[in-house]
Write a structure and sequence with these properties.
The protein is α+β, with helices and mostly antiparallel strands and about 700 residues long. The chain contains ten helices and 39 strands. β3 and β4 form a beta hairpin. The protein binds ligand LLCC2GWJ. Keywords: Acetylation, Hydrolase, Signal.
Length: about 700
């Protein structure tokens, strides 16, 4: 039953002159995509990353744009065929960015030929950008000390290398011998679509760049292992707090924070207790007065409960930590200090949105600053403490920069202009609720088409994670591409979704897909009786964890006319060969030690039950949900004579990255739904 609906933004229609970018997928791929913000230390300049299609349409190229803080037109700062990303600022307002560009000043022996990601500087006084550093394997993350301009960056280096020249020689020897083998000595060997090793991450420090010349990079940590969490730098650059994943003997890992004294190169454990308390400590930020480190400490994930992150404060000089706003039933993320060091800003999923919050450090009092139906990220505060800049998106609004006032509760944002900030939508969003069997309220967003001539067919699009909420704009799982074709799309926040309190997250624990399945069915039942929905023409689809749930749905009900599973688990045993097997072990049961739990919810054991036509989609280089799942599922369905198609991407991973392959993904999804939900003839997509 649908308890109530709430109208959201007013419908936006196309103007009738241009075909909608949600109809013409070539145009959809051309919409610029905004990601991340950087604010100059004096607050005077704001820049944003923008991704565009390359002229030949074969790849995405990013560039850095300057945003007008008062809403005027943005302008492009950087331009090259390979693109530029990760902008940050020096104290004098000069811009740093990462780019694979050839160094015009390079000597033949230099590592500046554009093969690797270098750190570039565009002076505040103008002129051409110049290369500051290009380690052999490129740069990773970059941070700048606010007062001195000292630069701290990560780079991957062969573990035995004495310095970056030695690293270059070792890499060349492997390349010349055509060797790519890796000898692993610890459990973590892959991440998403990347091999980890044989190189590891190190932290490098360099003094602020002079008017000419390259940075003198000093290795200040040596090898930190295959994966590093984020790091924070004190205002003078003398201290760095960084997160590492320490390997434990039983193939588990613990995320701990270490404190580096840059002058002496001494690194000590700052937060975390690998001997006794394996709870993760991550995402450190140092207060502007250099007194305090704020970070997120989570309880350990167990089979019964998911670790809840809590803000902790700890003196930079050492001493016990103290939890802040401990009883807040939210999952804070993206911590940012207020300039006076008396408050922190953060975002957190909350009831289908991700507002901006402020927490007072002395009292723990929490204030919500945004009251609109949106998800915020990438917070930056001006040095006078009066203004916040952020990225805002929503189910019905692509990401764009916005300006907020730090003193106003539940405000509407001031929208700033950036490429791709406005697209004509072929429908609108309603917030709907349903009641699960145990009385729990399940929140969803229902995206509806404008101009429908009768009840709309319904697609239930199930988010991944599962520890997230479908509260933001998505380019990978974009409902508008289906709404344009007349479908209504339901985006349910089932149990295990964030933003509805810890009890809601833990409600589905230990039950694999069981509770989530019933929640999704309750959400579906609540909308199919609406006069604007055609409950006889329905489909369900999802990616990643949403793909797993789609696979589970396939074995539990025949109510859907089509099911589309992207990168979904089919055989729960294969979670053991994921890049993060410990996450799946802790979260969903250990296949080896508790097979009765893990296998109870494994779709492959119920393959005989599948009756809805299925489209399986998988990338060969997916290490998060290995492709063996799709191969196994394909054989299971083929051998049983089930109606199915398999869209296989030999060169893609958990996500379909190349623009033309992403376009093909949407084309195939639309063709499959049209065949089975609308009863149209199968239209073979071009290029396959
Ligand atoms: C450090 S392990 C995190 C695992 C993560 N789950 C978070 O809730 C995850 O990767 N889950 C995948 C199975 C998944 O569903 N991924 C989603 C969201 O990241 C996706 O769309 O790829």
């Amino acid at each position: 039953m649908s308890e109530h609906t709430t109208d959201t933004e007013a419908p936006q229609a196309t103007d009738g002159r241009d075909p909608s970018p949600f109809e013409d997928l070539a145009k959809f791929m051309e919409i610029p995509r905004v990601s991340g913000l950087a604010l100059a230390p004096d607050g005077s300049r704001l820049v944003v990353g923008v991704q565009n299609l390359s002229p030949d349409g074969k790849k995405v190229v990013s560039s850095v744009w300057e945003v007008d803080r008062d809403g005027g037109a943005p302008f492009r700062l950087t331009r090259s065929a390979a693109g530029e990303s990760s902008p940050s600022f020096l104290p004098d307002g000069s811009l740093l960015f990462a780019a694979k560009r050839a160094d015009p000043d390079a000597k033949e022996s230099d590592n500046g030929n554009g093969d690797n990601q270098g750190l570039w500087l565009l002076s505040a006084r103008g002129g051409e950008a110049r290369l500051l550093a290009a380690p052999p394997a490129g740069i990773g993350s970059v941070a700048v000390a606010r007062k001195t301009g000292r630069i701290v960056l990560t780079a991957r280096v062969m573990p035995e290398a004495k310095d970056l020249d030695d690293d270059a020689a070792r890499r060349k020897a492997r390349k010349d011998a055509n060797v790519t083998a890796i000898l692993h000595t610890q459990a973590r060997i892959r991440e998403w679509d990347s091999q980890l090793g044989p190189d590891g991450t190190r932290l490098f420090v360099a003094d602020a760049p002079g008017a000419e010349g390259k940075l003198e990079l000093r290795d200040v940590t040596g090898d930190l292992g295959p994966v590093m969490d984020s790091f924070a730098v004190s205002s003078d650059g003398s201290k760095v707090v960084y997160g590492v994943l320490a390997a434990l003997p039983n193939s588990e890992h613990v995320a701990e924070l270490r404190l580096l004294d840059v002058a002496s190169g001494t690194s000590t454990l700052f937060a975390g207790d690998p001997e006794h308390d394996h709870s993760p400590h991550a995402a450190p930020v140092i207060s502007p007065d250099d007194s305090t480190v704020a970070y997120l400490r989570s309880d350990l994930d167990t089979f019964e409960a998911t670790g809840k992150p809590t803000i902790h404060l700890q003196p930079l000089a050492g001493g016990p930590s103290q939890a802040l706003a401990e009883h807040l039933d939210l999952w804070p993320q993206g911590l940012v200090w207020a300039p006076g060091s008396s408050a922190l800003y953060f975002t957190a999923d909350q009831l289908g949105r991700a507002p901006v919050f402020k927490v007072d450090v002395a009292t723990g009092e929490v204030t919500r600053l945004t009251g609109d139906r949106a998800a915020y990220s990438s917070l930056h505060v001006t040095p006078d403490g009066g203004t916040l800049f952020a990225i805002r998106s929503a189910t019905d609004a692509p990401a764009r920069p916005v300006r907020l006032d730090t003193a106003t509760e539940d405000q509407e944002p001031f929208l700033l202009a950036a490429p791709g900030d406005t697209v004509p939508l072929p429908g609108w969003v309603e917030e709907v609720t349903a009641t699960a069997e145990d009385g729990t309220v399940i929140h969803s967003r229902l995206v509806l088409p404008t101009g429908a001539e009768g009840p709309a067919p319904l697609v239930v699009w199930i988010h991944g994670g599962p520890l997230m909420s479908s509260n933001a704009w998505s380019w990978r799982a974009n409902p508008w591409v289906l709404v344009q074709r007349g479908y209504a799309v339901l985006l349910p926040d089932y149990s295990l979704s964030t933003g509805y309190g810890q009890a809601f997250v833990d409600r589905g624990k230990g039950e694999g897909s069981g509770t989530a399945f019933h929640d999704i069915m309750a959400a579906t039942d609540a909308v199919i009786d609406r006069p604007d929905i055609d409950g006889t023409r329905t489909a369900a689809m999802g990616g990643s964890y949403g793909g797993y749930l789609t696979n589970w749905i396939a074995t539990q009900t025949d109510r859907f006319k089509a099911l589309i599973s992207h990168a979904g688990v089919w055989n729960a045993q294969l979670r053991t060969v994921s890049d993060v097997p410990w996450f799946f072990r802790q979260a969903y049961g250990d296949v080896m030690l508790r097979p009765e739990h893990a296998l109870r919810w494994s779709p492959h054991l119920y393959a005989d039950n599948v009756s809805s036509p299925m489209l399986i989609i998988h990338g060969n280089n997916d290490y998060r949900v290995p492709v063996a799942n799709a191969l196994w599922q394909w054989q299971d369905l083929q051998r049983r004579g089930k109606e199915a198609k398999f869209l296989y991407f030999p060169d893609e991973n958990h996500w379909i990255m190349r623009p033309q392959e992403s376009k093909l993904w949407y084309e195939t999804v639309r063709a499959f739904l049209a065949e089975h939900v609308l009863g149209e003839e199968w239209q073979q997509p071009d290029l396959v």
